[in-house]
Amino acid sequence: MSSLNWTEDFLSELSADMTVAESAISSDVTLWQIDNYAWQRFAEIALRQKLRWAAGWAEQVQDRFLVNACFEKQGKYILLRTGVDASNPELPSQATVYPAANRSERHTQDMFGIRFSGHPDNRRWTRHQAWIEHNYPLRKDFPVQGTPVGITAPDMHYPFIKSHGAGTYEIPVGPVHAGIIEPGHFRFQAVGELILNLEERLGYVHKGIEKIAEGREPESLARLAGRISGDTTVGHCWAACMAMEQAAGIVVPARAALIRGILAERERVANHMGDIGAICNDVAFVFAQMQFTRLRELWLRTNATVFGHRLLMDSIVPGGVACELSDESCTLIKKELVELKNELNEVILALDLNSSLEDRLYTAGFLSEEIAAAFGTVGYVGRASGQDFDVRRDAPYAPYDQVTVKVALENQGDIASRLWVRYKEIRASLRLIGEFIERLVDGDIRTEWQTPSAGAEGLGIVDGWRGEIITYVRFEAGNKIARFYPRDPSQLNWPALEKLVLNNIVPDFPVCNKSVNGSYSGNDL
Amino acid sequence: MLRIFKKILTTGVVTEKIKAPKDAELEQLGIELKTHIDKKFSGSIAIRQVDAGSCNGCELEIHALNNPFYDIERFGIHFVASPRHADVLLVTGPVSRHMQTALLRTYEATPNPKWVVAAGDCAACGGEFGVSYASCGVVSNVIPVDLTIPGCPPTPLALMKGLLGLISAKT
């Protein structure tokens, strides 16, 4: 492993092309400010140095826009920032260098009206027809109510990629799908059964989360963050609280941190069990679906008994957690851990030896390591394609700094790999929950909130069940939120789906999609 | 294969019967549901679920209705893939403006007589999102609603209770 001081080398390489003003936002996050003309150049050098592009967003400060990009290498994060004038907001695109930045820049273009010159695909992304062109919802002069007129028209004229040639045809799917799932549109080009191309069109569940966050107080923001993506309520709530706590300079009590860890791992186990069952169900192996939905239901009932909510919503609050964990509850959870391990042993053995499952899941939906890296895929999608990264291990935060986090890794990149990574993560999470309970110390579960100074900012980075979540928060005067941006892992994983379905057959799309299981709501914001 | 059979046999039927008070409530609910459905719909009611902008929390709990504990199909309630096959639209989320037309078209595609159930706080009272440049707010702002089931998200039991309420009110 190369030196952890890669930033020194990197800075010296940058010095030939640009000036970097370095400052600390907090003890964990370093801010690098550069001139806007060097924005793309920075990305080129960063790619050469093997930095991962992790997140991008903008904010308006008076008559300027601050544009941010977050990079990571070996668990160290750099927050890169530049400014552009609101009168002529233009910046050289980083998406030309990092495909991962593509949709993020299109989102910023739609929401702020910042042009990214040289962008390989500057079609609108988040904007459908709810607001008109040249209106930008995240500018401060755009009213939160907007100016809607009558019924919002369907987005009929989005310029999809077209296929030509004898024998090719298109299949439009969605936004309303056949199952109990979220809305989005998929446009397939196919020959016979084979998928030639898939284009995703998301944004249908855009609810203006970034806009309606503005002006909220910390507790209210935490509640909103818990509803960015219902299946990741703990993950997003934690990331938002971490960012706010960083801005306020408060430290969460040790007991609260451990309970947060237990909550997050319980969320991971619940979702992974649901996913494994659903993946098997999509290839008509109903035995697994029934077993895993049964185990998931038992798990959620324990959540309700111990924490008062089946999905653990609003359990994390600014400064700590909302729920105590009694000795009785600990005993109950420990008993459940043992029972679940035994159940899993039996069910997984039945799955593993099943030839019809092997036939459908192995080699299907293949995502190569190169493409996984290029799109910066995270979580189980990345880990199934050799991307050995986990915030809990590589940039550990309390309580993960007290334990050894074993990161599941596969490199076959197919649906089976994504299933097995999930299974291994369940096993690892069960161990972690046990360890956190063992380490549970007496003490408060919540620190008193302190109003942050106007302009204070924070960056919360946690590993949600889908992977790394990055959340940015800036306060204005009076304990109010000036800017909130949550980057759900789905934003990085959705583009990978377009690639991994290529050369699969159309009927395998549902299982390919389920193996990625991106959040539509977390993506659309 | 033997392992699968063994696991199926040792797991047994977990579908809830009259055991604990809570389970009794569930069973009672199911029986009442079934009676009403039998009367009005000859034993079967078809639901088309539409996510009109939810955070996906409600979807997780709607999914749970089909797990072996609740097994809602035993009461004659099943989820269908098309609004053309549906008696009931079960709508979640605040209606995002980007989903407004899609929801209207789904409603129009559902044959009469049809009922609309708005499930979850967002669909019922606006929840955390309310009305904004991106959101139409509650479902009744967009299509007529016959029943609301509050909760963030409503538990599977609350969803079953709600559906019962709808059916008994209409019979």
TrEMBL record, chain A:
InterPro entries: ComplexI_49kDa-like, NADH_Q_OxRdtase_suD, NADH_quin_OxRdtase_su_C/D-like, NADH_UbQ_OxRdtase_30kDa_su, Ni-dep_hyd_lsu, NiFe-Hase_large
Organism whose genome encodes this protein: Candidatus Methylobacter oryzae
Keywords: NAD, Oxidoreductase
A Pfam family reported for this protein in Swiss-Prot or TrEMBL: NiFeSe_Hases
Listed name of the protein: Ni,Fe-hydrogenase III large subunit
Domain called NADH-quinone oxidoreductase subunit D: residue spans: 289-448
Gene3D superfamilies reported for this sequence: Cytochrome-c3 Hydrogenase, chain B, NADH:ubiquinone oxidoreductase, 30kDa subunit
Residue ranges of domain NADH:ubiquinone oxidoreductase 30kDa subunit in the record: 60-147
From TrEMBL, chain B:
Cofactors that this protein relies on: [4Fe-4S] cluster
Its EC number(s): 1.6.5.11
Coiled coil: none
Domain spans labelled NADH:ubiquinone oxidoreductase-like 20kDa subunit: 55-164
Gene3D superfamilies to which the protein is assigned, alphabetical: 3.40.50.12280
Molecular function GO terms recorded: oxidoreductase activity
Cell inner membrane keyword on record: no
Highest taxon above the source species: Bacteria
InterPro entries according to UniProt: Complex_I_20kDa-like (IPR052375), NADH_UbQ_OxRdtase-like_20kDa (IPR006137)
Pfam families: Oxidored_q6 (PF01058)
Keywords from the named record: 4Fe-4S, Iron, Iron-sulfur, Metal-binding, Oxidoreductase
EC primary class: oxidoreductase
Similarity comment text for this entry: Belongs to the complex I 20 kDa subunit family.
NCBIfam families recorded: PRK06411.1
Protein's name in the database: NADH-quinone oxidoreductase subunit NuoB
Record organism: Candidatus Methylobacter oryzae
Gene: nuoB
